[in-house]
Amino acid sequence: MKPIKRNITIISIFLLLGFLIVVQLRTVKEDYGHVTLKTITDLQKSVAAERQEITDILQLIKQSEERLYNYENALEVEGSIKDVVENELNGVKMVLGMTDLEGPGIILRLSDSERDLEVGEDPNDIIVHDSDVLTILNDLKIAGAEVMSINGQRILNTSEIKCAGPTITINNYTYAQPFIIKAIGDPVTLDAAIKAPDAYARNLKEFYGLVVESETSEKVRIPRYVGDVNMSYATSKEGL
Amino acid sequence: MIMAIIGLVAGILLGLYLPITYPAAYSLYISVAILASLDSVFGALLANLEDKFDAEIFISGFFGNAILAGFLAYIGDKLGVPLYYAAIFAFGVRLFNNFAIIRRHLITHRRGRKI
Prior knowledge:
heterodimer, A: Alpha-Beta Plaits, 2 domains, five-stranded antiparallel β-sheet, 6 helices, 8 strands, elongated, B: 115 residues, mainly alpha, globular
């Protein structure tokens, strides 16, 4: 090969090499630029979720530390944590509905209307239905009822209110009317939830003529739930 | 040597100022090819020091290695096996070997001159 030709080939080869390297560097650098708006929002969302989780966990740690402090305190002062555990157990039992409770609240009596049917009127209009009871129960919950019972059956989160012909089944026990609904909570608010204009219970009384009698009391007694709560599907899982 | 440096500088300038890019998906193949050609360049440098430089061997090695390395990376991608590792190892090892020999040559050269 002639020297000139050789030089030209070498120059062009190195030209190509330098060119390729620089273009490669530029391409790789530009690669960082492609982030879509969706990715940004997704990342922001996940960051917010993680932050929320961190706050939750911190809260949990704080609570656990508080409990630990209580235990330790009890150990130091009394030499045993029996009392603290017992208190806790009682609290849990109270929430679960395993204890008889007493407090200010309202007692409601609900029964079928005593009026005669109008000509051509549906007899369903003048009897108490399961849905009526359910709606009133919900109204009471909205008004801040803490504990409730119907005809002595404590209302748990699993309690059903089922139509059974002229009767209603609650916690697998069947009751005929009248239905006595008891609720513990702020008596004034609970009373308002029953008697306020356009409240469901008031409508039942005014338009359908059902018997809805309510009275507030300083000492409403609500019995415990009789029976077992069995869970065969749910298992406890920490940290969700 | 001078020709090579002139070519390299001109190539870098061209690369900086020409608005040419390729899809980022090819950057792996190109980088493997660049590694292969760098190996050829070091080999040429060594041959030059030993006065055995042959332009044809250099040119064929430059393009052949680059194309083979890029092709290997491409095939590896298609097969799901990271075959470009083979190119990286082979050319990386050779690159360092070449560099080591070049180093020795240069050092003995300098000592010989001084003494």
